[in-house]
Amino acid sequence: MKKKRKDLLGLRGVEREEIEEILATAEQMREISRRKVKKVPTLRGRTVVTLFFENSTRTRTSFDLAAKRLSADTLSFSVSTSSTTKGETLMDTARTIFAMSPDAVVVRHSCAGAPHLLARHFPWTVLNAGDGINEHPSQALLDMLTMRDRLGSLEGRKVAIVGDVQHSRVARSNIFGLTTMGASVRVAGPGTMCRSDLAALPVEIRHTVDDVVKDADVIMMLRIQRERLGRAVLPSAREYAAFYGLDLERLSRARPDVVVMHPGPINRGVEIAADVADGPNSVILDQVTNGIAVRMALLFLLLGNAEDASPT
């Protein structure tokens, strides 16, 4: 990165030039994953810790694999097997990790701002893998890389984000990143999941799904964040699917070349039908593949030294 940053905590305020650099580097990193031997010595001797206080499959494994493909040593902490189950605080856990001299910590936490707290108090690089309903920057970057693969450019593109936008950190990071890259974003969902206060973000709010999908270049479906809804009233799964789910009939009203995305995990038959998730418009598996490349790019740009490191 031309302006060397210590951490990646979110995409709010990240400049277009920096996002372009990350995406371009990720394209180079994909070549490594296509080799017979999928490893380069770029981060040999560096230590990357994954510190996850919430469950994860795609993000955690792809960060771990990204670090290993760059030859970094990895160390994994999870809330279910750590001393946090005995009452240890986040800061005490972080102090324990600090004593192990890591170079980077990838952290996911249910509290918004947890990665920012660690970044302020410790010298190692912090990568935000999702903090509460705040941001999930690496997911948005891999989404943008996937869109760019299909569309060629993000400038002037129309992106529809549908579902539980209110509680989605993925949606927020995508909104910040996509609008910085020149795309426009429309959101739609039930009133409890797409409230009027989202107007503070650079989005257009709709509550009818057909209004946002009919001329969209990309449709991104979101799962219901049941773990964050508290006592909010939810429709039944069948009712939600009927009004806000993406099935073949609803997809037929969109452009024939529309790109369908989902950050996962997928609730098939609720926010998206199985034949849409597995259909020709879907790039959901491409998102997973690009996740490794983007996270390799982030580790390289944040930890790699120009004198002794090369992406390829």
What does this structure look like?
With 312 residues, this protein is an alpha/beta fold. The chain folds into two domains: 136 residues, Rossmann fold (3-Layer(aba) Sandwich), CATH 3.40.50; 148 residues, 3-Layer(aba) Sandwich (Rossmann fold), CATH 3.40.50. It contains twelve helices and nine strands. A five-stranded parallel sheet has the order 7-6-5-8-9. Strands 2-1-3-4 form a four-stranded parallel sheet, sandwiched between helices. Strand 3, helix 4 and strand 4 form a beta-alpha-beta unit. Helix 1 packs across helix 12 and helix 2 packs across helix 12. The longest helix has 20 residues. The two termini are 16 Å apart. The mean pLDDT is 91.
Write the layout of secondary structure elements.
Elements lengths: L15 H18 L13 E6 L5 H12 L3 E6 L11 H9 L5 E6 L4 H8 L3 E7 L5 H15 L6 E5 L6 H12 L3 E5 L15 E3 L2 H5 L4 E4 L4 H4 L7 H8 L3 H4 L7 E3 L12 H4 L6 H20 L9
Parallel strand pairs: 1-2, 1-3, 3-4, 5-6, 5-8, 6-7, 8-9
Helix pairs in contact: 1-5, 1-12, 2-12, 5-6, 5-12
